[in-house]
Predict the structure.
Amino acid sequence: MRYTQEQISTALVLLKATGSPDKVVQTLGYPSAPMLYHWCKKYPEYYDVPNQKHWRQAPTELKHDVIKRCLIKGEPVKLVAEEIGYTPSLIYKWIREYREKAVIIDALKNKYSLPDLLKKLNLAKSSYYYQEKPIYAEDKYSNLRKRIIQLFHENRDIFGYRRIHMLLHREGIKVSEKVVRRIMKQEKLIIRRKRRQKYNSYKGEITPAVEKVIARDFHATKPNQKWLTDITEFSIKAGKIYLSPIIDCLDGMPVSWTIGTSPNAELANTMLRNAIATLKPNEKPIVHSDRGCHYRWPEWIQIMEEANLTRSMSKKGCSPDNSACEGFFGHLKTEMFYGYDWDEYSIEEFIHEINGYMGWYCKDRIKSTLGGLSPLDYRRSIGIAVSIQIMEEANLTRSMSKKGCSPDNSACEGFFGHLKAEMFYGIVSLPFTQILITMDMDLPLSISCLVPEIKSAHYKLSGDGWEFTQKLSAYE
């Protein structure tokens, strides 16, 4: 409804004379209290708002009316706030206050009369009954809440709402990140954060430094292309422990690590030898480090030269040159060290905890940069791309069945049927969970069998029968 300028001026003059919005509405029959306050702000020549002391403290009638409009009628808080001249945050504060009052009244209404409680807490009856409904309403996120709490504790109390949301998405649970964040806040699922002075291994220019080959480009297109290394210190009541890992730039996976009570040459050299042992003959990664003494000693240099690996070093005192490795240490200490009480742990027990975290990091810690996968799962996923690359290099033609159409590959399906019927069903339960067979017409040429978490065996057809050719790690 539109009001004339004369109606507006009459209402504002009466408000100035009486000082009561309720009396204006009762006398004139218009407008609503929020509209009257809006006019006061819009036409200061009739009603000087800043000079009125009561303007800063909103009247109870106004609060009741605003809450009714926002909660019962469903009007947008932002529009209501613009109309009455108050901020949306203040309106949300009123709503929270009324909800708290409703909880207090609900707890005391068996002991005191409802009218007395409403009067004492200055709450309208209609507002109380509206707020009472959510108190007894069933929590629609009860199952989700339990799952979020479970995932948070399963992952060492270190995943924030974004990673918890990724885990839920992988399980097929579709929910907003905001809902996950709100539930975690309500359940006080807070990750620990604390910083301490970092360990420094610089002992001067022992041997000439090499060039910064990586030049802060930590992107890798395949495994074992770029490695990063450093040493970090953990200080607990039982003593000091040092961790020396090698991190692969492809996915941040620790390729190798050693843990000890002294940051000596053996700690770094053993870690390097173990990492080199995982390389294939054609893999020659760049190994980047800071200018610490461990990477300047003759034995380290000799191991690198014998393996034909390329050395790379940060500039003196420039930690951003090795920021990816520093970031790994930051996540590690934030997630499993800072904020925990290690006073009762011995050095051996603490080393066991670090080893447990490193294994969990490889297999279970999901990363947003890897599409919500752990480093190990990511490497398994890119195995498909590797297979395609191998076929292209061999100049082979790829062919695929239609989606869900097994008859398009019926010859291979038939082979599996004969195999299982003749040597598997009803006889023995083999540990093989995956079998890859290459066939030529009806004749199988090669068979690859994967035994979960143990070994993988590959056989090929030769003139004398099936010949065992190689064994590979299941995680390779």
